[in-house]
Structure formats: structure tokens, C-alpha cells
Design brief:
Distance between the termini: 57 Å
Shape: globular
CATH superfamily: Glutaconate Coenzyme A-transferase
Order of helices and strands: HEHEHEHEHEEEEEHEE
Helix content: 10-25%
Number of strands: 11
Number of domains: 1
Low-confidence stretches: none
Length: about 230
């Protein structure tokens, strides 16, 4: 059973093999469920020319936002980018290539990539700039556009608990994009708050089976609040 143990001891080992120009998928939504320590390791390693796929690009100074500080991201595929001033500046200055993708389409692109489906038709975006240059086709009287699936060299995932075999459980809304990201990486790395013994996780509650996970590490997390609202 030792060969099934996905645990690694350091973040350096967790991202061994990551090099310039690779495509990195990252879970998270806003600041929820963000693999923040894995992103910090990318920042430390100074790799550049990355294509990053995620719902958003973090905020200034946290999450994927730290990679913008060293201009490590060449191309960003995301559905929302509105909370990051540095991102906006690099985009307007022509330093960063951005592909905005409808949120559901982005999730399905990664799910399809993980399932071995090369492309799919969706009605979302037809007749808009999203559809420019893409094949379209009518089904049952409605127009659809063809969207290609997404896979990555590395997939970075934040979980709540996992056993050493890589079976992962997410906590509430921190699940967000993490399960589809986990499916779509050639090397999927998961960081969790707690690693438990096999058998401690209820099988019916496992969100990402260990078959998708290549490396697993236990980390400590900042758990920021994105927008704090207090009664006046």
C-alpha cells in the first residue's frame, strides 16, 4: 500500500517539475478555497511565462495576485478579474494576455478536459464576442458554439481533509472550482488542512477520489476575508 501514499513532505517537492511556460490550473473562488501555499511556492520558484486558468486572479498581494507582482503570468484564462488593480494595469498596458470565459463554460472546459472530452457545444456566449472565431451549430432550433476543453501541466487544489491515498473532502463553498481543477491536471497537487488515516473519511462524502491526485501535502492557511461587512 506504500505505493498509494500520495504525501510529500515539502512544497518544493509538491511542485517538482514545474518550469517556465507551463499551464497551471488553480482552484478557488474569490479568496475561498484558494491553494495559497502552492501559489506562494510558484512565486518563490520564479518560474515565468505561465498560462494560468482560474475563476479569478486573486487580489493584490494574495493568491494568484502575488504571481502578477513578478510578472510570472503571461496569459490568464478567467471568468472574473474585478478585484485586482495590478491585474487591470498589466492588462491595459499590454503586459498580460487575458481570455475572459463565462463562468459555467470555464468550469465545464476543465471538467471535460478531465473526462477526456475534447470539446462541447454550449449556447452560452452565442452572438457575443465570446463566440468570435468559434464554430457554431444549431440543435433543435437553437444556436450553440463549440468550446474546447482545458487541461493543464499542473493543477493546484485546496481541500479540507484527505487521507494519505489522496481521497479529498472539501468544506462547504470552498469546494467551488477545486473538483474540476483536480480532474484536469497532468500532475494534480492537493494541499489540505488535515490528513487522516484511510477509513476515516466516509466514502460517500469524498468529493475527489485519489485516482485524480498525484501529490498531497498538509499546510497552514491564512483564510482571509475578502469583504468584511460590519453593522454601522
Amino acid at each position: 500500500m506504500a505505493g498509494l501514499d500520495k504525501r510529500v513532505a515539502t512544497y518544493e517537492a509538491a511542485l517538482e517539475g514545474l518550469t517556465d511556460g507551463m499551464t497551471v490550473l488553480s482552484g478557488g473562488f474569490g479568496l475561498c478555497g484558494v491553494p495559497e501555499n502552492l501559489i506562494a511556492e510558484i512565486h518563490r520558484r520564479n518560474v515565468t511565462g505561465l498560462t494560468v486558468v482560474s475563476n479569478n486572479c486573486g487580489v493584490d498581494g494574495f493568491g494568484l495576485g502575488v504571481l502578477l507582482e513578478k510578472r510570472q503570468i503571461r496569459r490568464m484564462i478567467a471568468s472574473y478579474v474585478g478585484e485586482n488593480a495590478l491585474f487591470e494595469r498589466q492588462l491595459l498596458d499590454g503586459e498580460l494576455e487575458v481570455e475572459l470565459t463565462p463562468q459555467g463554460t470555464l468550469a465545464e472546459k476543465m471538467r471535460a478536459g478531465g473526462a477526456g472530452i475534447p470539446a462541447f457545444y454550449t449556447a452560452t456566449g452565442y452572438g457575443t464576442q465570446v463566440a468570435e472565431g468559434k464554430e457554431s451549430r444549431a440543435f433543435h432550433g437553437r444556436q450553440y458554439i463549440l468550446e474546447e476543453a482545458i487541461t493543464g501541466d499542473f493543477a493546484l487544489v485546496k481541500g479540507w481533509k484527505a487521507d494519505r491515498f489522496g481521497n479529498v473532502v472539501y468544506r462547504h463553498t470552498a469546494q467551488n472550482f477545486n473538483p474540476v481543477v483536480a480532474m484536469a491536471g497532468k500532475i494534480t497537487v492537493v494541499e489540505v488542512e488535515e490528513i487522516v488515516e484511510p477509513g476515516e473519511l466516509e466514502p460517500s462524502q469524498i468529493h475527489t477520489p485519489g485516482i485524480f491526485v498525484d501529490r498531497l501535502i498538509q499546510g497552514r492557511f491564512e483564510k482571509r476575508i475578502e469583504k468584511r461587512t460590519l453593522r454601522a
